[in-house]
Specification:
This protein has about 375 residues and is an alpha/beta fold. The chain is built from 14 helices and 13 strands. Helix 11 packs across helix 12. The two termini are about 20 Å apart. The protein binds adenosine-5'-triphosphate (ATP) and magnesium ion.
Length: about 375
């Protein structure tokens, strides 16, 4: 049975998720490994997300650090599973997004796939997004085809929600092409605000947000951002939603308590998800949630409260650990690339047509 490894290093910059899957008629998760992002590398990658001096050389150096972490994680996973590199058909490596500007014709994920192939001895498939952008698409989200492959055999109107740094929805309705789009910031602003105020990397279980109260005026101001008013295909990133974006809005309003700002940011995440879901697929029976946000109890409770006629639950309820769905997706995308299967969805990204995604670095 062919084995693949997926490496996902998402916009939250929390760490590298590495998933080993077996691709049979079904997709099975065999083993996982998580490598937390070292603080120095997180800071450097974060600074590369905006214009700065000597970016080309700095990104070349940063991606070597990133790739060594990825290779170490892969070696650890293989050793734990008693597997040799030759047992793995390919690694699907997303890389780290440092720019996402599809309207300007580019998206950049760094992660030196040539070096990853050298360090692991395994074929690497990488640069999954550029081809869709070249075909006029958003290059994101790419997971809807995988969500459909994983959860598609169920009946009824379903949606799969990933809450990582940003949040994205896949809409799966029997007999219709899968739809999907980015909804807006997922954890990115929650993480940035708690880091600024309390030095913590994230708001565990949404406790701090849960201790505050939503400020309606602030919420409405934030909801006025043009991204939320635009219909899909659409995708977003740190270019739009970042700490400066929040601080600009805060600067125009009276002062609020820090925990109330956190509560409002969580409400922003919940509302933008729910409103875009209700607009695109009003009669959703089940909403399956994955990504780190699935652990945010306050957020999950808000989603359930805002969607009284939809069953909201973690993908864990359907047998897939929410922490590994995205890394599994990139393992599957590598498989599809090698098999010549198109994995973008024009109904999602707006590309001119179906495309085989990824660049292959043979072992
Ligand atoms: N127990 C928890 N309570 C609250 N939030 C959590 C918890 N665990 C994880 N998170 C949030 O999830 C984030 C990480 O999620 P995830 O790894 O899915 O995002 P990502 O790396 O941006 O991935 P992607 O871009 O693929 O969606 C953390 O930064 C944090 O905000
Ligand atoms: Mg992550």
């Amino acid at each position: 049975m062919p084995l693949y490894i997926g490496v996902m290093s998402g916009t939250s910059l929390d760490g590298l998720d590495i998933a080993l899957i077996e691709q049979d008629s079904a997709i099975n998760l065999i083993a996982t490994h998580y490598t937390p992002m070292p603080d120095t590398l997180r800071a450097e990658l974060l600074s590369l997300c905006a214009s700065g001096p000597d970016e080309i050389a700095r990104s070349a150096i940063a991606q070597q650090h990133w790739v060594r972490l990825a290779a170490q994680g892969i070696h650890t996973l293989l050793a734990q599973q008693n597997l040799k590199p030759q047992a793995i058909r390919a690694i699907g490596s997303h890389g780290q997004t440092i720019r996402h500007e599809p309207s300007l014709g580019f998206t950049v994920q760094i992660g030196n796939p040539a070096l990853l192939t050298e360090l692991t001895g395994i074929t690497v498939v990488s640069d999954f997004r550029s081809r869709d952008v070249a075909a006029g698409g958003q290059g994101a989200p790419l997971v809807p085809a995988f969500h459909e492959a994983l959860f598609g055999e169920r009946t009824g109107n379903r949606a799969v929600l990933n809450v990582g740094g940003f949040s994205n929805l896949s809409l799966i309705e029997t007999g219709k092409p899968v739809a999907g789009f980015d909804c807006g910031p997922g954890n990115v602003l929650l993480d940035a605000w708690i880091h600024l105020q309390r030095g913590e990397n994230f708001d565990r279980d949404g406790q701090w947000a849960g201790s505050g109260k939503v400020e309606p005026h602030l919420l409405n101001t934030l909801l006025g951002d043009p991204f939320f008013l635009t219909k899909g295909p659409k995708s977003t990133g740190r270019e739009v939603f970042n700490l400066q974006w929040l601080q600009q809005h805060l600067g125009q309003l009276p002062a609020f308590q820090p925990q109330d700002i956190q509560a409002t940011l969580l409400e922003l995440t919940a509302r933008t998800i729910v409103e875009s879901l209700q607009m695109a697929q009003p009669h959703t029976e089940t909403l399956l949630v994955c990504g780190g946000g699935a652990h945010n109890t306050t957020l999950m409770n808000r989603l359930a409260a805002l969607l009284p006629s939809t069953q909201v639950s973690s993908t864990a309820k359907y047998g897939v650990d929410p922490d590994w769905v995205e890394a599994m997706a990139f393992a599957w995308l590598a498989h599809c690339c090698l098999e010549g299967i198109a994995t973008n969805r024009p109904s999602v990204t707006g590309a001119r047509g179906l495309r085989i995604l990824g660049a292959i670095y043979p072992a």
